[in-house]
TrEMBL record:
<comment type="similarity">
    <text>Belongs to the bacterial solute-binding protein 1 family.</text>
</comment>
<keyword id="KW-0732">Signal</keyword>
<feature type="signal peptide">
    <location>
        <begin position="1"/>
        <end position="25"/>
    </location>
</feature>
<keyword id="KW-0813">Transport</keyword>
<dbReference type="InterPro" id="IPR050490">
    <property type="entry name" value="Bact_solute-bd_prot1"/>
</dbReference>
<dbReference type="InterPro" id="IPR006059">
    <property type="entry name" value="SBP"/>
</dbReference>
<dbReference type="Pfam" id="PF01547">
    <property type="entry name" value="SBP_bac_1"/>
</dbReference>
<protein>
    <submittedName>
        <fullName>Carbohydrate ABC transporter substrate-binding protein, CUT1 family</fullName>
    </submittedName>
</protein>
């Protein structure tokens, strides 16, 4: 689901669109080094010629993250003379279509739902990215990412901010004291869970309560297990209804997730049994790790923001995260995540200039230095990523063995992705059998 629709992505940032300058010029200036804060405008020469112009951007990003956005492009604006007017709204998803349909569309929008990008493109509301924006994006992002900004062969938007969901949080200190080691395969993870359970501690703590969005953390489990039990191609078929929701492939993934989530021996440390999962707030679900009431909590990179003030989040700290291991590491490293895509509703030259800049390595490094931000941009220098978990996320995104797939429920029709899928997982955790739950979701898929 979208940043605006899901509390789980409340910490994610954004992206933008286009430019009328040669691809060669873009390439020559797109390094991992950032001139931000140096007062040197040479890196922005290819974006000049639009002094006094204004580009409007609309997104779901507010408060401190919006301030960080303004800071991230401040030097670009000063050097090029292009004013960027960003507006963030908690009603982004509802208001963006209203603005577009009312003839008052922003120049650019940061859209965290590939499905919403497809919807606007199909309606003829979006402008195709310029050749230069496309060239910049192709230099800096993998095909796995670019496809989510492409509709019917036309490229509309480069990714910008990202998040990684395939993480398990743990306490390095406790692991060292107990002699536990970070697992490298799914079988290792189950053996570790058994070892922890045999020691008298519930190994896992889980929470999927999130107000109107209750259930979304459980769908992330299923998406991660789909990527680990099936091929990426089958995952893609699942998200587009190329295979039924109650197919054997999906059943296998759900049952494998149930190996942990529906195991009274494993959950729910600090809260109760399996059924307590549906009433445990996702924000609080990992906190029992700090009290040694559980040892493992699967949640995205942005969960770093949920630890109490003063908690050291690092490989040698109070808490850290490890990659949720693959079933068969020899088949690659599946990574589930999300992010935003920069799309344009207008295509004036200054809009294209901003779009291309925000797809560049220059911008990625400028924003990363401010902190609390992740991008799949391959020009992002790890030295510019201060947060250890963010650094771990970028390493995964830049790993050549990584097979990235976008959050599946964000790709599905809303009636399913934010509707029956969420609700079905609640029913499943509360005791309903897998076959009945998946058949119910399958019957809800729009014709």
């Amino acid at each position: 689901m979208a940043v605006f629709a899901r509390p789980r992505q409340a910490f994610v940032i954004a992206g933008v669109l286009g430019l009328a300058v040669s691809a060669t010029a873009c390439s020559s200036g797109d390094s991992g080094e950032s001139n931000a804060g140096t007062g040197d405008c040479s890196a922005y020469e290819k974006y000049e010629g639009h002094d006094g112009k204004t580009v409007t951007i609309y997104s779901s990003i507010r408060e401190i993250e919006a301030d960080r956005l303004d800071e991230s492009w401040a030097e670009f604006s000063e050097c090029t003379g292009i004013e960027i007017d960003h507006q963030g709204s908690s009603e982004f998803e509802a208001q963006l279509p209203v603005q577009v349909d009312g003839g008052n569309a922003p120049d650019l929008a940061f859209i965290p739902q590939p499905g919403l990008v497809q919807r606007f493109a199909a309606a003829g509301k979006l402008k195709a990215a310029s050749a230069d924006t496309k060239a910049m994006a192709e230099q800096n992002y993998s095909p796995d990412w670019l496809k989510y900004g492409t509709v019917d062969g036309t490229f509309y938007g480069a990714p910008l901010g990202s998040n990684v969901k395939s993480f398990v949080w743990y306490s390095p200190k406790t692991f060292q004291e107990k002699g536990w080691t970070v697992p490298e395969t799914w079988d290792d993870l189950i053996k570790l869970s058994d070892t922890i359970a045999d020691s008298g501690t519930k190994p896992w703590c889980v929470g999927v309560e999130s107000g109107e969005g209750t259930g979304w953390p459980a769908t992330d489990w299923i998406e991660d297990l789909m990527l680990r039990t099936q091929t990426p191609e089958v995952y893609d078929q699942w998200t587009t209804h190329g295979i039924p929701f109650n197919s054997p492939q999906v059943t296998e993934a759900v049952d494998k997730a149930g190996q942990i989530l529906k195991n009274e021996k494993y959950v729910n440390g600090g809260f109760g049994g399996v059924r307590s999962i549906t009433t445990t707030a996702f924000q609080e679900a990992g906190l029992p790790i700090l009290e040694n009431k559980c040892a493992l909590h699967r949640q995205a990179s942005f969960y770093a923001n949920n630890w109490p003030e003063g908690t050291k989040v690092a490989e040698d700290g109070d808490v850290f995260a490890f990659y949720l291991p693959a079933v068969d590491p020899a088949k690659g490293k599946p990574v589930l995540g999300g992010g935003e895509f920069t799309v344009a509703f207008n295509d004036r030259p200054e809009i294209q200039a901003v779009q291309t800049y925000l797809a560049s390595g220059e911008y990625a490094n400028s924003r990363a230095k401010i902190g609390d931000w992740v991008s799949a941009n391959n020009k992002l220098d790890l030295a510019n990523v201060p947060n250890p978990v963010d650094k771990l996320s970028v390493e995964l995104l830049q790993d050549s063995n990584t097979v990235f797939r976008f959050d599946g429920s964000d790709l599905m029709p809303a009636a399913v992705g934010t509707g029956t899928f969420w609700k079905g997982m609640i029913e499943w955790l509360n005791g309903k059998d897998t076959a009945s739950v998946l058949s119910g979701i399958e019957s809800s898929w729009p014709n």
